[in-house]
Amino acid sequence: MPHALLTEIAAMYTQQAHPSALVGEFRRTAVLVPLDEAGGLWSVDMDGIRWVCAFTDETALARFAVAHGLTADGAWDYRSVLGARLLDVVVPAVTGPAGVALDVGGERPVLFPPVRGIVPDEVALDALDVPGNRFATATPNTIHGNGEPTQ
Predict the structure, then answer these.
(1) Using one digit for the tens of pLDDT, what is the confidence trace for 26-80?
(2) Sign of the C-alpha dihedral, residues 12, 18, 21, 26?
(3) 19 lies in a domain?
(4) At what angle do helices 19-28 and 3-13 cross, to 10 degrees?
């Protein structure tokens, strides 16, 4: 059981948290990510963001699976993945914006959204001004029919 991560989550819910400490603990902790029917990491799409769902332990994973009718007995194949790997490798590999939802549906869920300081800048939605951000659609000049740019 990831005791240090659970301590940081509890601190967040009592408004005693330091966000960087929570992210740091998540990055250092192995969490459980259920597998989809194709053997990939299970995720959901919500409002245009793909959320990779992760759980702090087997009990939280089983409780979610049963509550949402995904399994009758709570048994669900999963992979143990370091939080840093989810944020630094998995999230950037997703086609669109992505983050991690930890213990979603539980008593103390935590979202790690696609923003600076959590995911790499090239996939952070609040880093559209960073060169190389793949979601930035910079079009500062528009060309009119006469070929002259306007600002």
Answers:
(1) 999 999 999 999 999 999 999 999 999 999 999 999 999 998 888 878 788 999 9
(2) positive
(3) no
(4) 160
